[in-house]
Amino acid sequence: MRKIIALFIVFACAGYARAETYNPFFVGHKHQVGFSLGTGVNSGRIVPPFAQFVPFTELHVQYSVPSEAFYLPARLSMNLTQTVGFGRRYGWDWTSYSIPIIYITKDLALLYTRGWYFGAGAGAGFQAKENERIGSKLVFTFKVFTGYRLTDRLAGELYAKHFSNGNTAPENNSYAFYGIGFTWNF
User: 2-185 architecture in CATH?
Assistant: First the structure.
């Protein structure tokens, strides 16, 4: 957790643009919905390596509003993720991890142009049930992503996302995903 906080402070200090001048997530709009699909990775790292892909999928939907943090443009989001597992791999029964997760996140635009943006986000929420992979209902999430504005209303994003319980329970093997999604502004 200390590494995440340190990362946010470093990136926040590097920013110089005020959020009210331009928010690359919204481009003048006030609301956003996003949909994404991710594939699972068997990794306990915050940014998972491209190794050990597993039969574990993330279906994700979010609603966001403009925000700012440390004078950087941001979005505040309510998220709903449904994890879907099927089969066994690397000693885990992924079918037993088909669990909905509801959480709130704040994503910061760390670097951006009028088309591309790169950012990171963090949040907290709850999964519907405990299991031996994440031994609590409380979950924390961290995400790094890059996006491209196709129009002022539509953007595509690539991301790496990590869920864990922040060591609040003895079992903390985490979930990790790589994914693709899109956002729609209105």
Answer: Beta Barrel (2.40)
